[in-house]
Amino acid sequence: MDQQKLPNVTLAIVLSCLGFVCCCFYGLPAVILSGISLIVLNIDKKKYIADPEKYSNYSTFKTARIISIIVMVIGVIYMAYAIYKIVQLGGIDGMMEEACKVYAEAGIEMPFCE
User: Fold this and answer.
1) How far is residue 16's CA from residue 21's CA, in Å, rounded to a whole number?
2) Contact by Cβ (8 Å): 80, 28
3) Do residues 64 and 13 lie in contact, with contact meaning Cβ atoms separated by under 8 Å?
4) Does some domain include residue 54?
5) Residue ranges making up the domain that contains 47
6) pTM score, whole prediction
7) Bridge partners (DSSP) listed for residue 55
8) What pLDDT shows up at residue 1?
9) Does residue 114 surpass a pLDDT of 90?
10) For residues 101 and 71, what is the distance between their CA atoms, to the nearest angstrom?
11) Which of 2, 13, 90, 105 is the most buried (most CB within 10 A)?
């Protein structure tokens, strides 16, 4: 019997890697992409459980799942940190005022700073 590969494993790895790269955008894209990856992997897990002899790349599936979970955790931690910093600075306005102070100290004029 010819063994097939689980169809969505490569997609899950790509989504997880993109999520890892997007962690620096306040964590939200990482959480979204790794969440989609985990949903897609759950579909493949059901297919594998139904007929394990049919598929050959279960180890790649496990690797993709681990990567997705790690990216999800990193994204949640970074998002929580970003929210904490925004609240600590007094919201978006406070964050902008702090940025203006830093730019003014460096001698850089920014159009949004008055």
Assistant:
1) 9
2) no
3) yes
4) yes
5) 9-106
6) 0.81
7) 4
8) 59
9) no
10) 33
11) 13
